[in-house]
Design a protein that fits this description.
The complex is a heterodimer of chains A (170) and B (562). Chain A has helices spanning 4-24, 32-52, 56-80, 83-88, 93-117, 132-140, 144-166. Chain A is mainly alpha-helical and 170 residues long. Chain A folds into 2 domains: 4-130, Up-down Bundle (Four Helix Bundle (Hemerythrin (Met), subunit A)), CATH 1.20.120; 132-170. The radius of gyration of chain A is 20 Å and the shape is globular. Helices cover 53% and strands 4% of the residues of chain B. Chain B has helices at residues 2-7, 10-47, 63-73, 84-92, 96-101, 124-134, 136-146, 149-172, 174-180, 185-191, 200-203, 205-218, 230-233, 243-268, 286-311, 319-349, 369-372, 382-386, 388-408, 412-417, 453-457, 499-503, 529-536, 546-554; strands at residues 110-111, 114-115, 436-438, 463-466, 486-490, 509-511, 526-527. Chain B has a 3-stranded antiparallel sheet with strand order 4-5-7. A two-stranded antiparallel sheet of chain B has the order 1-2. In chain B, helix 2 packs across helix 19. The longest helix of chain B is centred in the first third of the chain and has 38 residues, at 10-47. The chains are: A mainly alpha (170), B mainly alpha (562). The A-B interface holds A 33, 37, 40, 56-57, 60-61, 63-64, 67-69, 72-73, 75-76, 79-80, 129-132 and B 86, 121-123, 126-127, 129-134, 136-137, 140-141, 144, 152, 155-156, 159-160, 162-163, 166, 183.
C-alpha cells in the first residue's frame, strides 16, 4: 500500500492536469465562467502540490493571490462582458494548430530540461518548510534586485492602468 | 478505552485526537450558528421594543430547531432560467471558507497533552486570508447562477466590495506581525501574555479599527450589507433561492461572523488568555484548559453581540461611500500604520530612545464633495466629522431600548398597546386595508354583478371570476342581470391594494379589517364565493353611483352632469 502523501500527489497532479485541460478545451460547455472556475480548481490543486512539498507559504500565497484575488477579478470582468458571442464562437483551424504546436514546443523544452537536470533524488531538501522568515531573508538579500525590478514593473502597470482609465476625463 | 489509546502509535493517536477535535469544533460551530441567529432575533427585538421569537421551548430556546426543520421541509423551488450547476454549487460552498478557517484558530491552550488547535500552521494567518478570499465565490456564483438582474448586481457588488476590503484587512494586520515577528497564531497569542496592556488592541488601535471595519465588510454585515440590499436589489444575490439552499447562505453569513470574531479575539484580544490568575500560560490541569476554552468562547460571544448590535443601530453606506472608505481612507491609513510601525521598530532596534509617540494622524482626504451635489449640504462640524459622538449616541439609544425590554419589561409596546400581539390583539386603525371580501345588500342578496372589472384591474391577478353565461343562474336580486357563478380570491397573491374596491361599480367588494389570514394548504388560501360572502357580511342599501356623483359634484371642475 502506497503512503498517503504519494496518493495525494497523484490526486492533485491529475486534478491539476484535468482542470487545466478543461480550462481551454471543455467539451461540455463553452461558457467562459466555467473556464474561469476550472482555472480556480487548477490553482487550488497546485496549492495542494505545494503543501505536499511542505511549501506552506507558497501554497497560502497561491490561494490568496491567484484564487482569491486575481480570479475573482477575472470573473468580475467576464460577467460584465457580453458572454453570448464568446459562447457561439467556433474553434478555428488556425488557432487549433497554433495552440497544439506551441503546447508541443513547450512540452519538448520541458522534457529536455527535465532529462538534463537528472532525477533530483539526492538534492538537498527544501529549506522553506513553511516558515516565511528564510524566504524573506533570501528575497531581501540575494534576490533584492529582481525583487525590486518586479515591484517596479507592477508599479508601471498600475500607473498605466490609471492613465488609460483617466484618458477621456479631460 | 484508555488502554486502547495508549497502545496506539503516535501517528495513530494524533489521527484519533484530531478526528475527535474536528467533530467537536464542527459541532460547536454549528450550534453557535444556530443560536446566534436566535440571539440576533431576540436582541433586535429588544432594541425595537418587541419580544422576538419566544414561543418554541422555554425563552424560545428551541427556535433554531424549528427553523432548521422548516428550512428542510419548505418547498424547494428552482426557477426555470437559472444555470443549474452553479445554482447548486453556490450554496454548497457558502459554509466552506468559515469551516476550513476554523482549522487554524487556537481555541484553547491544551487539554492534557492535546493542543487545542486543529492545525498549528506557521503561515496560519495567510491561510486564513486565503480562505476568506475564497468566500466571495459563493456569492458571486449565486448572483451569476440566478441569471436575472438583481441577484447579478448583488454578486457584482459583492466581488468588488470583498476584493477592496480584503486589501485593507490584509494590510491592517501587517503591523501586528511586525510586532510579534511570526505568522503563527499561537505565537501571536503568546506575544500578548503578561498583562492587559500587552494585548495588541492597545498597541495597535488603528490596526484593530481598520480590521474591525474590514471584517464587517467581508462578512457582508451592516453597515456594509450592500450585496443583499433589500431596498434596491429586492434581496440581492439570494433572491432566487428557497428552502435549505437559502438557509445555507444564511448559515454561511453567521459562520463567517463567528470566524471574524474569533480572528479579532486571536489577533487583538489575547485569544484564550486572560492576564489574571495565571490564565495566560498553557493550562497544566484539565480544569484550566476548559476554563481557557470558555474564556475564548466568551470573548467571541462579546464580539458577536457587538456585530449584531451594530446591525440594529446603523443604516447602510451608499455604494460610493463604501468604496471611498475602503480605498481612500482605510488603505492609506493601513499603509501609514505599516510604515510608522516599521520605522518605530527600526529605531528601537537601533537602540534609540523614543520620547515621542508616533501615531498616524487622521488626515482629511480632499474630495470634490462641494461641487458634486446639487443640494448644498451643511458642512459637518468637528464633532460630527469625528463620528464618535454619533456612534456613542447610537449605542446609548439602542442600549436603552434593549435594557428596558430585557430587564425592566417596560417599553413602547407595553406602555402604548398594554402588551404584545397575540395576547393583546392589535386595534385596527380607521381606513385600514385588510382582506377584500364580497358583501351582501340589506336583503341578503349578492351585490356583485360579475362585471369582472376587479379581475381586470387586480395587479397580482389574485381574483378569478367565472361569469354565469347565458344558461347560468340569474341574479338573486331584481335590479341586476347576473351574478358570478364563481368568485375566487387567492389570498396568497392578494396585496391588499384596494384597487378592486375602487373599481367596483356596485360597491360589492370591500377591504375589511382582517389582517391575519391563515391556512394549512394553498387550496385553503383560495377563498371562494361562499366563503367571501360569509366573511364579508351585509353592507348598507344599494346606492350605486349615488355618493360617487356627490363626490364628483363636490369637486367643482369635475365634468359630471346630473
Amino acid at each position: 500500500m502506497p503512503a498517503l502523501p504519494d496518493i495525494l500527489f497523484y490526486v492533485f497532479a491529475y486534478l491539476t492536469l484535468l482542470c487545466g485541460v478543461l480550462v481551454v478545451a471543455n467539451p461540455f460547455s463553452r461558457n467562459p465562467v466555467t473556464s474561469a472556475m476550472f482555472l480556480v480548481l487548477t490553482i487550488l490543486s497546485m496549492a495542494g502540490l505545494f503543501v505536499l512539498l511542505h511549501a506552506f507559504f507558497l501554497a497560502a500565497v497561491q490561494i490568496l493571490v491567484y484564487a482569491g484575488a486575481v480570479m475573482v477579478l477575472f470573473l468580475f470582468v467576464i460577467m460584465l462582458l457580453d458572454l453570448k458571442e464568446e459562447e457561439r464562437r467556433r474553434i478555428k483551424m488556425f488557432g487549433l494548430v497554433g495552440g497544439l504546436v506551441s503546447a508541443g514546443a513547450i512540452a519538448l523544452i520541458l522534457l529536455k530540461t527535465l532529462r538534463a537536470a537528472g532525477s533530483g533524488a539526492d538534492a538537498p531538501g527544501p529549506s522553506l518548510e513553511g516558515n516565511p522568515v528564510p524566504l524573506g531573508k533570501l528575497l531581501f538579500t540575494q534576490y533584492l534586485l529582481p525583487f525590486e525590478v518586479v515591484s517596479v514593473l507592477l508599479l508601471v502597470a498600475m500607473v498605466g492602468v490609471i492613465l488609460l482609465s483617466k484618458k477621456d476625463s479631460k | 478505552m484508555i488502554d486502547w489509546l495508549n497502545n496506539l502509535s503516535d501517528t495513530q493517536q494524533f489521527a484519533v485526537f484530531t478526528a475527535v477535535k474536528v467533530v467537536a469544533v464542527f459541532a460547536v460551530l454549528m450550534t453557535m450558528v444556530a443560536y446566534i441567529v436566535l440571539v440576533e432575533r431576540r436582541v433586535c427585538a429588544f432594541i425595537q421594543d418587541r419580544v422576538g421569537p419566544n414561543r418554541v421551548g422555554p425563552f424560545g430556546l428551541l427556535q433554531p430547531a424549528a427553523d432548521a426543520i422548516k428550512a428542510f421541509f419548505k418547498e424547494e423551488f428552482t426557477p426555470a432560467q437559472v444555470r443549474k450547476v452553479y445554482f447548486v454549487l453556490a450554496p454548497a460552498i457558502a459554509l466552506m471558507p468559515a469551516i476550513l478557517n476554523l482549522a487554524v484558530i487556537p481555541f484553547g491552550s491544551q487539554l492534557g497533552r492535546q493542543p487545542m488547535v486543529l492545525a498549528n500552521l506557521n503561515v496560519g494567518i495567510l491561510y486564513t486570508f486565503g480562505m476568506v478570499s475564497l468566500g466571495v465565490y459563493s456569492i458571486v456564483l449565486a448572483g451569476y447562477a440566478a441569471n436575472s438582474k438583481y441577484p447579478f448586481l448583488g454578486g457584482i457588488r459583492s466581488s468588488a466590495q470583498m476584493i477592496s476590503y480584503e486589501i485593507s484587512m490584509g494590510l491592517s494586520v501587517i503591523p501586528v506581525f511586525l510586532l510579534t515577528g511570526s505568522l503563527n497564531l499561537n505565537e501571536v497569542i503568546s506575544y500578548q501574555t503578561g498583562g492587559l496592556l500587552h494585548w495588541l488592541v492597545f498597541k495597535q488601535p488603528l490596526a484593530f479599527a481598520i480590521f474591525l471595519g474590514a471584517a464587517f465588510a467581508e462578512t457582508n454585515r451592516t453597515p456594509f450589507d450592500l450585496p443583499e440590499a433589500e431596498q434596491e436589489l429586492a434581496g440581492g444575490y439570494n433572491i432566487e433561492y428557497s428552502s435549505i439552499k437559502f438557509a445555507l447562505f444564511f448559515m454561511g453569513e453567521y459562520a463567517n461572523m463567528i470566524l471574524a470574531s474569533a480572528m479579532m479575539v486571536t489577533l487583538f484580544f489575547g485569544g484564550w488568555t486572560l492576564p489574571w490568575f495565571g490564565l495566560d500560560q498553557p493550562a497544566a490541569t484539565l480544569l484550566g484548559g476548559i476554563a481557557q476554552i470558555a474564556i475564548f468562547l466568551a470573548k467571541v460571544l462579546v464580539f458577536l453581540l457587538v456585530i449584531i448590535w451594530v446591525r440594529w443601530m446603523w443604516p447602510r453606506f451608499r455604494y460610493d461611500q463604501l468604496m471611498d472608505l475602503g480605498w481612500r481612507r482605510f488603505l492609506p491609513l493601513a499603509l501609514a500604520n505599516i510604515v510608522v510601525t516599521a520605522v518605530v521598530l527600526w529605531l528601537k532596534s537601533l537602540n534609540q530612545i523614543l520620547s515621542f509617540s508616533l501615531t498616524p494622524r487622521f488626515s482629511r482626504v480632499p474630495g470634490d464633495n462641494e461641487n458634486r451635489m446639487i443640494v448644498k449640504r451643511k458642512p459637518l462640524n468637528f464633532w460630527e466629522r469625528l463620528y464618535l459622538p454619533a456612534i456613542i449616541g447610537g449605542f446609548k439609544v439602542t442600549w436603552r431600548h434593549f435594557a428596558n425590554t430585557l430587564f425592566r419589561g417596560r417599553n413602547a409596546a407595553k406602555i402604548v398597546a398594554k402588551g404584545y400581539y397575540p395576547e393583546v390583539p392589535w386595534t385596527v386603525g380607521e381606513g385600514y386595508r385588510g382582506a377584500p371580501y364580497l358583501v351582501r345588500d340589506q336583503d341578503g342578496n349578492t351585490k356583485c354583478v360579475s362585471c369582472q372589472l376587479c379581475e381586470f384591474i387586480c395587479p397580482p391577478k389574485a381574483i378569478k371570476i367565472i361569469p354565469p353565461g347565458p344558461a347560468g343562474p340569474p341574479a338573486d336580486r331584481r335590479n341586476a342581470e347576473k351574478m358570478p357563478l364563481e368568485f375566487e380570491i387567492n389570498m396568497l397573491r392578494c396585496i391588499f391594494c384596494g384597487f378592486c374596491q375602487e373599481v367596483c361599480p356596485e360597491e360589492a367588494i370591500f377591504l375589511q379589517k382582517d389582517y391575519s389570514l391563515t391556512g394549512t394548504s394553498r387550496e385553503e388560501m383560495i377563498y371562494n364565493k361562499e366563503k367571501l360572502l360569509e366573511l364579508g357580511g351585509t353592507h348598507g342599501g344599494i346606492q350605486k353611483w349615488k355618493h360617487k356623483s356627490e363626490e364628483a359634484k363636490a369637486q367643482e371642475n369635475f365634468p359630471v352632469k346630473t
